[in-house]
């Protein structure tokens, strides 16, 4: 290390206790193998139970390895060991030796990292001018029994957004529950060119220390961390919406591609969901089997996760689906049906939203308000998330839809008398449809499939949602004209016919009557 500022946090290994290995030799060999990957950029020696003498003796051996690999060594908590061994850095938490004491006692060139679990702590670290912040836990972890509650990727993103407003804020490394399955998602959520948010690296214990091949594990983490294109991330914004051309483009692509949509949906709406997808010129697969998820993620273009008839196993099943469809780079539409009604629904909704990238969240006003309210348990609470009721004005609802889209870096489709679509940058209101849709069981749930097919074919996520939803609602209006206002039974059949025609004609003239407005 030439200067205290010359450190790279991108793949930061924190050690597990030497005592968790069969021998000290096995432990040192493990570290040496990990360091031989050339992927590790910082190594923190963390021993909670050793005496100062034993810690120092171990630190001297580890320092030889880190020096050989030209990787800075950071000592966890112990100022004495840090000084004695001449480590390049010290990491301390809020219960440890104070930052100012450590700063006075250590050479200027020694960098000092501070832990933060909340926005207030992160701001305090910045005020103290810590050299870096260890922000965590990001995800649940079993490596630190006294860890604070996780902030998840969206919470980390909010904290980083606040830090980015300060001049000279310290770099930040995320820690806690980070592994190969979530690194890419965390990196995408927390490195957003649009808002200036940056996370500087990932710190891990088990992802490398518990791996039988620590060098390979470190290399894979580095490769995931350095990605600039993401498997799951939406394609760039290309569509001009609203316009008849966009309408024809998306529906034409649906007709050509015939997207295959995996419906993990509730038992009440299976038939209408499958029929609407077929009418939309897409193909449905209906399956709730856990053992099929990975295979289906490889052949399907997208999945609909609908918690309408959930049980205690739904969150495990659906988070598995999020992981599989993210890894396959396919569309995930999440419908948190009745999200606020029970504890099970609230918890399941929260776990799914925390688990990975959701391409589209679709729900009615109270479901979206519940999704927004769930955030109030974390960072958002400190900054005051307003609970928006379904009887609030369209503008107020649109503001919340935009906030939820921004927070999860996703597209939100809120259905109601006025539908609202937002991707956190652009927000539209859509005013088509008929009251007969509300008298049709599964009309909202079947829309999940229409959105998945539209996005899978279209490219621009939010734009494709606007087109798919408008086509669906215009078809409903045409069907209502045919059957009259008091025939909900006959309405469904004619609606399916009209959806079919809309895609068959690829929207030729079908956009007439669309009442779509892009809000400023
Ligand atoms: C990089 C990094 N970030 C955070 C921590 C946690 O430190 P602390 O709060 O002091 O908790 P313990 O590690 O001492 O249990 C860390 N060690 N490293
Ligand atoms: C050491 C540590 N500090 C944390 C914090 O939140 O400050 S979480 C954590 C444990 C990280 O281990 P793993 O990568 O195995 O989850």
TrEMBL record:
SUPFAM superfamilies according to UniProt: Ribokinase-like, Thiamin phosphate synthase
Q: Which GO biological process entries does UniProt record here?
A: thiamine biosynthetic process; thiamine diphosphate biosynthetic process
Query: What InterPro entries does UniProt report for this protein, alphabetically?
Result: Aldolase_TIM (IPR013785), Hyethyz_kinase (IPR000417), Ribokinase-like (IPR029056), ThiamineP_synth_sf (IPR036206), ThiamineP_synth_TenI (IPR022998), TMP_synthase (IPR034291)
Q: Is Nucleus among the key words of this record?
A: no
Molecular function GO terms recorded = ATP binding; hydroxyethylthiazole kinase activity; magnesium ion binding; thiamine-phosphate diphosphorylase activity
Q: Name one GO cellular component term.
A: cytoplasm
- The answer to keyword Membrane applying to this record is no
> What does the record give as its pathway?
Cofactor biosynthesis; thiamine diphosphate biosynthesis; 4-methyl-5-(2-phosphoethyl)-thiazole from 5-(2-hydroxyethyl)-4-methylthiazole: step 1/1; Cofactor biosynthesis; thiamine diphosphate biosynthesis; thiamine phosphate from 4-amino-2-methyl-5-diphosphomethylpyrimidine and 4-methyl-5-(2-phosphoethyl)-thiazole: step 1/1
Thiamine phosphate synthase/TenI domain: residues covered:
11-208
What catalytic activity does the UniProt entry give for this protein? 2-[(2R,5Z)-2-carboxy-4-methylthiazol-5(2H)-ylidene]ethyl phosphate + 4-amino-2-methyl-5-(diphosphooxymethyl)pyrimidine + 2 H(+) = thiamine phosphate + CO2 + diphosphate; 5-(2-hydroxyethyl)-4-methylthiazole + ATP = 4-methyl-5-(2-phosphooxyethyl)-thiazole + ADP + H(+); 4-methyl-5-(2-phosphooxyethyl)-thiazole + 4-amino-2-methyl-5-(diphosphooxymethyl)pyrimidine + H(+) = thiamine phosphate + diphosphate; 2-(2-carboxy-4-methylthiazol-5-yl)ethyl phosphate + 4-amino-2-methyl-5-(diphosphooxymethyl)pyrimidine + 2 H(+) = thiamine phosphate + CO2 + diphosphate
**Keyword annotations of the record:** ATP-binding, Kinase, Magnesium, Metal-binding, Nucleotide-binding, Thiamine biosynthesis, Transferase
Q: What domain of life does the native source organism fall in?
A: Eukaryota
Required cofactor(s): Mg(2+)
Q: Which HAMAP family match?
A: Thz_kinase (MF_00228), TMP_synthase (MF_00097)
Put simply, this protein is called: HK-domain-containing protein
Q: What is the source species?
A: Ascobolus immersus RN42
Phylogenetic placement of the source organism: Eukaryota, Fungi, Dikarya, Ascomycota, Pezizomycotina
């Amino acid at each position: 290390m030439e200067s205290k500022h010359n450190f790279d946090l991108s793949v930061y290994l924190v050690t597990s206790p030497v005592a968790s290995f069969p021998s000290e030799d096995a432990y040192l060999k493990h570290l040496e193998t990990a360091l031989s990957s050339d992927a590790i950029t910082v190594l923190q020696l963390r021993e909670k139970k050793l005496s100062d003498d034993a810690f120092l003796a171990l630190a001297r051996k580890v320092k030889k390895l880190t020096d050989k690999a030209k990787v800075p060594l950071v000592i966890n908590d112990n100022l004495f060991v840090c000084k004695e061994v001449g480590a390049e850095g010290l990491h301390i938490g809020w219960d440890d030796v104070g930052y100012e004491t450590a700063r006075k006692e250590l050479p200027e060139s020694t960098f000092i990292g501070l832990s933060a679990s909340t926005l207030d702590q992160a701001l305090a670290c910045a005020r103290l001018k810590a050299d870096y912040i260890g922000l965590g836990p990001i995800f649940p972890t079993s490596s630190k029994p006294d860890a604070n509650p996780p902030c998840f990727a969206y919470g980390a993103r909010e904290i980083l957004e606040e830090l980015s407003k300060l001049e000279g804020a310290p770099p930040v490394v995320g820690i806690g529950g980070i592994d190969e399955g979530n690194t890419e998602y965390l990196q995408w959520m927390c490195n957003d060119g649009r808002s200036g948010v940056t996370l500087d690296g990932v710190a891990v214990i088990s992802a490398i220390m518990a791996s039988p091949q620590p060098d390979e594990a470190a290399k894979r983490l580095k490769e995931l961390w350095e990605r600039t294109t993401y498997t799951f991330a939406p394609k760039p914004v290309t569509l001009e919406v609203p316009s008849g051309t966009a309408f024809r483009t998306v529906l034409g692509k649906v007709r050509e591609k015939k997207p295959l949509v995996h419906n993990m949906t509730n038992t009440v709406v299976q038939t209408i969901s499958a029929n609407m997808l077929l009418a939309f010129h897409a193909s449905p697969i209906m399956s709730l089997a856990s053992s099929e998820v990975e295979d289906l993620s490889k052949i399907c273009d997208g999945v609909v996760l609908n918690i309408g008839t959930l049980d205690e196993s739904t969150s495990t099943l659906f988070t598995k689906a999020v992981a599989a469809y993210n890894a396959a780079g396919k569309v995930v539409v999440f419908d948190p049906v009745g999200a606020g009604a029970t504890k099970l629904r609230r918890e399941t909704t929260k776990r799914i939203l925390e688990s990975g990238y959701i391409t589209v969240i679709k729900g009615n006003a109270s479901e979206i308000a519940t999704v927004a309210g769930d955030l109030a348990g974390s960072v958002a609470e400190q900054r005051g998330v307003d609970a928006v009721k379904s009887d609030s004005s369209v503008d107020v609802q649109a503001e919340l839809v935009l906030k939820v889209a921004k927070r999860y870096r996703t597209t939100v489709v809120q259905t109601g008398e006025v539908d609202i679509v937002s991707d956190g940058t652009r927000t539209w209101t859509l005013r088509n449809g008929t009251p007969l849709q509300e008298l049709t069981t599964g009309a909202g749930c079947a829309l999940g499939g229409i959105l998945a097919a539209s996005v899978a074919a279209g490219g621009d996520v939010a734009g494709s949602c606007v087109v798919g939803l408008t086509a669906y609602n215009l078809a409903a209006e045409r069907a209502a004209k045919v059957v009259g206002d008091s025939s909900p039974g006959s309405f469904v059949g004619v609606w399916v016919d009209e959806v079919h025609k809309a895609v068959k004609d690829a929207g030729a003239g079908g956009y007439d009557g669309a009442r779509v407005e892009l809000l400023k």
